């Protein structure tokens, strides 16, 4: 839904940029925390885990993919409905 008020539209797009930064920050924090946890697990159990290391890589890849898709969906939902629900007013 388009709005005729240029100032309001500009405000909404700048706020959307801020929300995008928050979503990217959240995703970065999640990936870093999970990376640290996996690192700690692998460093303590390397003798056991080295045999099926590829499973860890697949698992981490799937987690990151799912989280990224989720964060992109949140951003897209905000972008789609920001004028409709007057999200930033």
Notes on the structure:
This protein is an all-alpha fold. The chain has one domain. It contains three helices and no strands. Helix 1 runs antiparallel to helix 3. It is rod-shaped. The mean pLDDT is 86. This is Monomethylamine permease.
Count of individual domains: 1
Main sheet characteristics: none
| Structural class determined from secondary elements | mainly alpha
Radius of gyration: 19 Å
- The tally of strands reads 0
Proportion in helices: over 70%
β-sheet strand percentage: under 5%
Distance between the amino and carboxyl termini: 16 Å
pLDDT under 50 segments (min length 5)? none
Individual helix count: 3
By oligomeric state, this entry counts as: single chain
Secondary-structure element series:
HHH
The whole-number mean of residue pLDDT values reads 86
What spatial form do the alpha-carbon principal axes imply? rod-shaped
